[in-house]
């Protein structure tokens, strides 16, 4: 069991409806030393890849991505979820559906921040049905850039996102893959990696 | 002139309506090494303060806050801008008005992440009219916690937010204070610090 799985068992809370609350260390309060460990682990898993940029999506991907980026010495671009009046100029747009928020969002990245020379590592906190991730992949490909890999903190292995993304041939590395969880007992079972 | 002022002159773009676009290094694409320099500078300016937590607000405050937090070895809490279905339980709520997005938002922090023992450093990317910041201060005070200081990347010195916050007695440190800018010439004038 790795450091993140241990932390999930210690501080995660399982709620009805397959909700795993990790807001005390991952996506509301953020344990920066944990993020640093995640960065070191992603660096190892994507060793040798010519990554020159990290792409993530607001809001809860940003903190992880920025700390991970220190291990790769690259800038981070975060995709925005709705058109802001400050986001002018040419933009890449993908439409994604959010499991948590039960709504559709436009995912937007200014074109000037992704180009065909970019080798991109995508980072996010959660992977469930993979809609957000597919939107990010679509944006990287619209730019003619290369997806070198995808690093996720927690994957819900019982949802289809991870399988779809791996079937497409991407190197997807999830630090913890939840196979099942039980709101009554609070039990969480991880896939062996 | 400090490193951030230099970077603004190099890569910032002045737009009509007193908009300063810094999206190539601060709030869309993020220069993590610049954030690290900002962290070192805030550490110096808040030396001796018993800071045990950093509070910021989604989305563009998060990246800066997480990298700054590495200099203080403390966790980061980010306030959310709208009620999410994953954010259950007791919450502190403040209503703030956004200059950029021309709308009102509820700023929300789960009560369990702020308590009377907390000594909080508030971090954000921009300070203009100070509404978001006043919401964050209100939330810290609702929790009975202490605002030890406020660290801002770029303050618009020609708007009232900075003066109001300083008049309230808070230690507000802005790494760059823009006195005036001119969309036609692209010129930016900083307040001497």
TrEMBL record, chains A, B:
5-phospho-alpha-D-ribose 1-diphosphate binds at residues 128-132. InterPro entries: PRTase-like, PRTase_dom, Pur/Pyrimidine_PRTase, Xanthine_PRibTrfase. It is found in: Cytoplasm. The gene is xpt. Belongs to the purine/pyrimidine phosphoribosyltransferase family. Xpt subfamily. It is an enzyme of class 2 (transferase). CDD domains: PRTases_typeI (cd06223). It comes from the Bacteria. NCBIfam families: PRK09219.1, XPRTase. This is Xanthine phosphoribosyltransferase. Pathway: Purine metabolism; XMP biosynthesis via salvage pathway; XMP from xanthine: step 1/1. The lineage of its organism: Bacteria, Bacillati, Bacillota, Clostridia, Eubacteriales. Its main location: cytoplasm. Its EC number is 2.4.2.22. Keywords: Cytoplasm, Glycosyltransferase, Purine salvage, Transferase. Xanthine binds at residues 20, 27, 156. Homodimer. It catalyses: XMP + diphosphate = xanthine + 5-phospho-alpha-D-ribose 1-diphosphate. Residues 46-153 form the Phosphoribosyltransferase domain. One of its GO terms (molecular function) is xanthine phosphoribosyltransferase activity.
């Amino acid at each position: 069991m790795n450091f993140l799985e241990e932390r999930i068992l210690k501080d995660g809370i399982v709620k009805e409806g397959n909700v795993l609350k990790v807001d005390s260390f991952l996506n509301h309060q953020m344990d920066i030393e944990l993020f640093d460990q995640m960065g070191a682990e992603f660096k190892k898993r994507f060793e040798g890849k010519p990554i020159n940029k990290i792409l993530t999506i607001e809001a809860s991907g940003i903190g992880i991505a920025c700390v991970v980026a220190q291990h790769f010495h690259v800038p981070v671009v975060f995709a925005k979820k709705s058109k802001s009046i400050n986001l002018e100029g040419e933009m890449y747009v993908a439409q994604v559906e959010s499991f948590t928020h039960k709504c559709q969002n436009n995912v937007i990245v200014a074109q000037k921040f992704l180009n065909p020379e970019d080798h991109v590592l995508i980072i996010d906190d959660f992977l469930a049905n993979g809609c957000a991730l597919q939107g990010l992949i679509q944006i990287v490909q619209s730019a003619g850039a290369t997806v070198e890999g995808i690093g996720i903190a927690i994957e819900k292995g019982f949802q289809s996102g991870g399988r779809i993304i791996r079937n497409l041939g991407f190197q997807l590395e999830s630090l913890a893959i939840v196979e099942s969880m039980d709101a009554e007992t609070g039990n969480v079972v991880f896939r062996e990696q």
